[in-house]
Structure formats: structure tokens, C-alpha cells
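Thread amino acids onto this structure.
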């Protein structure tokens, strides 16, 4: 949890709160992966939670080491419109890091299990952070990001795009969304 918050603090987004419900979901999936032999990772079919997975030699890595391996992807990260957030051109190279710093995410829950000589760490995030492959108009929005709003085409996707921002910024970008006084 501390490492997650450190990465978020570095980019100026709000810190996460711990969710026991997400931790239970993470434990259920970690146990499922363990039951499959514990040497292969695959993502759960989720609609409402984001997910990071880690697999490594049992006892060789601390939980902080595991999370920091995701954070190490920061060196390939570049701010931009998802999926164009990687210096390598492949968002998968920064997917774990992006999951951790996504501005709209507010909660995290993690769980670990050991089986077959491996540790498996599963972290779940809510609300779900990364868009589906068909949706590419959401932004990774650390508050220190430079927004090039002139490049945004306000079309049928504008409302979806604006929902990816924190409420205070949504109101700034589109005052009609602000609650009336």
C-alpha cells in the first residue's frame, strides 16, 4: 500500500484507500491461480475492477519488491492519451505502472499466496482504471500533466473523455457539468 501511494504521490494524484472487498477478490483470484499450478498468470475476466499480477520465486521477494517491479515501468512511461503512454510504443510495457497511477482510481486491495515454489501477488483496483481495447480516449491524468486541450475533438466521445478526469477538472473543462449553487 505504501509503495502504491508513493508512486501516486510522485505524479500528484490522490492516494488510494485500502479496500477489504478488493483484497478478498484478489485473494480469491490468487487462490484460483494457485489451484492451476501456480506457475502461470492470467487475468480474471473483470468488468468493474482493475488488476495487476506478479509471479516469482517463493520467498525471494518482499511485497514491496513485487509492487516496485510494477513501478519500475515508470522509466518507459510517458504522459498522454491512452494507449499512447509508453516510450516503447506498447502500452503493455507500462500497464502495471499506469494501473497504479490512474487518476480516477481510489481504492486498492491486494493478496498473496504461495504454491509450486512461487509467490503470486494479485492487486485489484477500483474504479477500474484501464479502458477496454475499443476505448482509447481516456487520459492518464497526474495533476502535473500538461494538457493539450486544443488537440481534443469535442465530438460524441467528449463526454466519455471528460468522465476520465477528476470532478474538479471536469467542471473546469466543462462548467455545465458543475452542480448548480
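Threaded sequence (181 positions):
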Amino acid at each position: 500500500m505504501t509503495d502504491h501511494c508513493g508512486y501516486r504521490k510522485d505524479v500528484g494524484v490522490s492516494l488510494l484507500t485500502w479496500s477489504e472487498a478488493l483484497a478478498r477478490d484478489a485473494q480469491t483470484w490468487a487462490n484460483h491461480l494457485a489451484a492451476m499450478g501456480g506457475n502461470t498468470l492470467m487475468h480474471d475476466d473483470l468488468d468493474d475492477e482493475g488488476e495487476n499480477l506478479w509471479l516469482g520465486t517463493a520467498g525471494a521477494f518482499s511485497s514491496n519488491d513485487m509492487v516496485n517491479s510494477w513501478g519500475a515501468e515508470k522509466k518507459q512511461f510517458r504522459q498522454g492519451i491512452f494507449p499512447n503512454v509508453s516510450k516503447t510504443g506498447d502500452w503493455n510495457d507500462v500497464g502495471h505502472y499506469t494501473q497504479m497511477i490512474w487518476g480516477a482510481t481510489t481504492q486498492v486491495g491486494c493478496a498473496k499466496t504461495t504454491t509450486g515454489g512461487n509467490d503470486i501477488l494479485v492487486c485489484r483496483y477500483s474504479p477500474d482504471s484501464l479502458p477496454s481495447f475499443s476505448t482509447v480516449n481516456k487520459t492518464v491524468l497526474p495533476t502535473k500533466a500538461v494538457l493539450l486541450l486544443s488537440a481534443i475533438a469535442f465530438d460524441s466521445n467528449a463526454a466519455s473523455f471528460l468522465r476520465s478526469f477528476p470532478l474538479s477538472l471536469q467542471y473546469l473543462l466543462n462548467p455545465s457539468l458543475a452542480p448548480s449553487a
